[in-house]
Design brief:
3 copies of one chain form a homotrimer.
Chain A (H helix, E strand, L loop, with lengths): L1 E9 L6 E4 L1 H11 L4 E7 L4 E6 L3 H14 L16 H10 L2 E7 L2 E2 L6 E6 L6 E9 L1
Antiparallel strand pairs in A: 1-8, 2-7, 3-5, 3-8, 4-7, 5-6
């Protein structure tokens, strides 16, 4: 099994942002030369998510609204007794999951026609990392 | 690393359906001859999910009810400005996640006694695809 | 591709508990000798979860509270017609997801500074299993 690992760093302007990273995954895959296997794309922070959905601004706002409804920004999370203010971002990470595995078939990301990979920042305005690891032959 | 890739197509009668696919994963695994590794089972659409739970009709209805409570069918999603009507299905996909990885040990799906794999259709009545990819030795 | 598989058994005192298992994953990885690849950590029951978050008791309580709000312990789940009483635990499993994949780079779990792996028990006080499978070279 061969592998190739790269890291991306995000530093968003807003507290919450949804950033399409399909092309970044493709670049790492192409550089790896791997034809059959998978790409693991995983946030390295506990206040960010990774998901696959539609590259359409309306649905990204709808997702954001749902997450804010279930896990709103609030002052009184128990986590805030530590001095932190980002309890909601931890909960949003749990709800969206922090990683996806994209199958690689015949040298390409084996995604459906509308599937795009997103990095979901829930507590931005500072450097946050993500790992992309391609594994296969 | 060896691999084997197959695609399933679903065309459900209902808008929402939960279809057990454990046996399909087993068939692809058996055909692959792989003894140690994993099976990636991943929806290729952004309005479907894949999860592991109990093959019991009551709990599948309970799951459906929870998803409809959190992310109800509604007219006023921002996504619907594009002409689509399936915003709720995108949100249900985010909540359930669209993929699972089943470990393969000694040539078998290494599942617990009650674990069954389900394809969750949230916007059916049309052809939808899923990829099963076995990887290992 | 090499692999190594181990199973953990939990028998919690409480119905719901969150148990840090990062060191257990590290032990299996070290025993495997694998330098590049991944560790799959997957609950073998449909009433437990596995997630990555912060080893801070406040946020673990906040996560528990969110799950209990969305999927409360209740008598009237349809699943309970079977005689079971753990419908809420099945729903909490769906919400948290039952598995994570940790990348392995240069022989180490490739986690961010605050990422810790947790086994989430939602229906404890009895033996429950989890599989850890390391795959790579």
């Amino acid at each position: 099994m061969k592998s190739k690992t790269e890291y991306l760093t995000f530093n968003t302007k807003n507290k919450r942002e949804y950033i399409r990273i399909t092309d970044k995954a493709k670049e790492v895959l192409d550089a790896s030369g791997i034809q059959e296997g998978m790409v693991l794309i995983s946030a390295m922070h506990i206040t960010a998510g990774v998901f696959i959905n539609d590259n359409e601004s309306g649905i990204l706002s709808d997702i954001d609204e749902m997450l804010e409804t279930i896990a709103p920004y609030r002052d009184d999370y128990r986590h805030h007794r530590t001095g932190e203010k980002n309890g909601d971002a931890h909960l949003k990470n749990i709800l969206t999951h922090h990683q996806v595995i994209v199958p690689v078939t015949a040298g390409k990301l084996d995604l459906g026609p509308w599937q795009e990979i997103f990095y979901a920042e829930f507590d931005g305005r500072r450097a946050k990392r993500l790992v992309i690891k391609v594994m296969g032959e």
